[in-house]
Amino acid sequence: MTTAVIIVAYRNPEDIRRCLRALRAADPGETFDICLVENGGAHAFAVLVALLAEEGLIFKAPRGSASPFARLVHFAGGPHGAAVWVGLAPENLGYAGGVNLWLRRLEPDRRVQGYWILNPDTQPEPGALSALIARAERGGYGMVASQLVSTAWPERVLMRGMRWRPLVCRPLALERSRPSRDKPSAQLATLLEAPSGASFYVTRVALQEIGPMEESYFLFYEDLEWGLRAKTLCGLALAEDSTVRHVVGATIGSAGARGKRSALAVYLDHRNRLHFVRRMFPDRLRWTALVVLARTFEFLAVGAFRNFEAALAGWAAGLRGETGRPERFYREPAE
Question: What are the tens digits of pLDDT across the range 96-153?
Fold first, then answer.
């Protein structure tokens, strides 16, 4: 039996390099294959393949059909002898779309007992995977979250999962800034509603119950929805000994001060909050629309005029019911 480590890349090969190097320090007993998908086009795919060769992995011819990928490359000699597969998405499918490509391809493989979803800008600490699997098996949980810490300040928690706050219409990062060596609070098990999409584990059995990730978000809130489904249908928990370092917002600039966030991150955050509530709590949509509109003006208060426009446009798109890839920001990658 093995675990599939699924990583969605978008033109960030150096993040992938650091993540793979961290996985080399995994516990000796951990067995996994690494399944990468490049969302950033053919050139980014070629760069990623070249990087893996630089890291000493051994190229092997792909086995079987590349479907549903545009291209598929197989390497041997990954961390702990893992096979490393690199697929090219047929187009930029977003986070959930990239994850689901691998979930569909791996579904017939009965050797795979579970799926570890990792962001490319993460660096798991030794034993992170073992702790996830042990927590799932010990408690009969279908989905298990890691503890995230910052790469810059690993002694402090970034989050131990999330909870949706309906009054202010945004998710809460649970136990943020607590010492990472402290035990979780007694109420965490009750408060926890979803893992962070940066690192979590899903069992094969749970996937059959909750189905794939919802692709209509493109980015943001799909992990929150998947977690809520898992908590209801197959159980959700935190593996406190699974620690993963994370560079927050490295891929699309979703972290930091309001004026420094990317317009894409701001747009999708405001759009997808409305989309999430429409799907999960439709009776709260009117209140959410008012709150999200009010929060767009926070960007004006700090002089972030470009991001105020992005926030307002995202809010309007959410009201219209726009979903999927935001075409106003998308450009066909250069080949």
Answer: 999 999 999 999 999 999 999 999 999 999 999 999 999 999 999 999 999 999 999 9
Q: What is the mean pLDDT of residues 57-79?
A: 85
pLDDT in tens, 185-234: 999 999 999 999 999 999 999 999 999 999 999 999 999 999 999 999 99
Positive/negative CA dihedral, 86, 90, 94, 98: negative
Beta bridge partners of 143: 202, 236
What tokens were used for 72? Answer: 């598929």
What's the pTM? 0.94
Q: Which residues contact 8 (CB under 8 A, 6 or more apart)?
A: 36, 37, 39, 95, 98, 99, 119, 120
Amino acid identity of residue 305, one-letter, is F
Residue 179 preceded by cis peptide, ω within 30: no
What is the predicted pLDDT for the residue at 334?
Answer: 45
pLDDT for residue 328? 84
How many Å apart are CA 317 and CA 323, to the nearest integer?
Answer: 8
Query: Do the Cβ atoms of 316 and 267 come closer than 8 Å?
Result: no
**What is the Rg, in whole angstroms, of the alpha carbon atoms belonging to the chain?**
19
Amino acid at 122: T
**CA-wise closest residue to 114 among 146, 144, 139, 148:** 144
- Decide if 162 contacts 266 (C-beta within 8 A): no
E strands present in the chain:
2-9, 32-38, 58-60, 71-76, 84-88, 112-118, 122-124, 143-150, 157-159, 162-165, 170-173, 199-203, 236-246
| C-alpha dist (Å) from residue 179 to 33, 153, 156, 160 | 32, 10, 5, 12
A 10 A CB-CB count for 181 gives 9
